[in-house]
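User: Can you help me understand a structure? I only have the sequence.
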Amino acid sequence: MLGCGITNEEDRAMLVEFAQVKDIQRAFSFVMAKLTAVERRLINVEPSPETYQIPDGLKGHIETTTLQIFFSPTLGAYLKDQWPNKKVVAVLKKNPQWGLTPAVSGDKLKMKIINKKISSRFIHHRNDAKDIISTSLGKFDEATSKFDNSGTGIIDLSEQLIRTVGGRSFDLRVTVPLCARIAFIRSVYRTAFKAAGNVKPPDFWGKLDEELQKVCNEKEGNADRISRQSHEQSPRKRPKPIWATSC
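Assistant: Let's start by predicting it. Here is the structure, written out as tokens:
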């Protein structure tokens, strides 16, 4: 029955070796030596990255920073090359007092968890924003293949996005550049909706990045020249805003 239930060959061999030890003192020394070897192996095992808990203070700054970047009217991409994520990390590194100290940023396991948290927040922001933008277009009439006039104006839509995506604690003022960016995003969504067969486009944010890249290429990456009239105008008869992007 020796070794019953033990499938690991190394453990089975160790058990057989121990059973052959007759002297009690030698048996004790044998056990202690094996325990020491096991302890050394455990020390060398990398801890699970899930053991690191992001401090609440850093979590708060991650939330605020992801929202600020998501609502930036000069954001050059929403998905491509994890551009928003990189901008968040850059901001956090510039403010080590928030919790992302050089020691933390130099720890691969901790950064893996932090990057995962940043990604999850951007996924949340994109999903919420997409639903709100879709609803803001109004009801779609299949007979005419057009949206009715029950849609939301750009200024109201901007305020709604800030409240819903950002939450009560997020404070952001509605500006002309922000309204213009949201108008552009909704314009791209409307086009993608029709291209998908009058259904919600599955890869909307990727398509939006493509449109932003086209504009960037047309303007040769010059942020000062990247401007044009928005495609939409608010029902409040505000002037058509200018929107810009940073490549």
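Now, to help you interpret it: Residues 9-45 form one domain. The two ends are 71 Å apart (CA to CA). Let me know which part you'd like to focus on.
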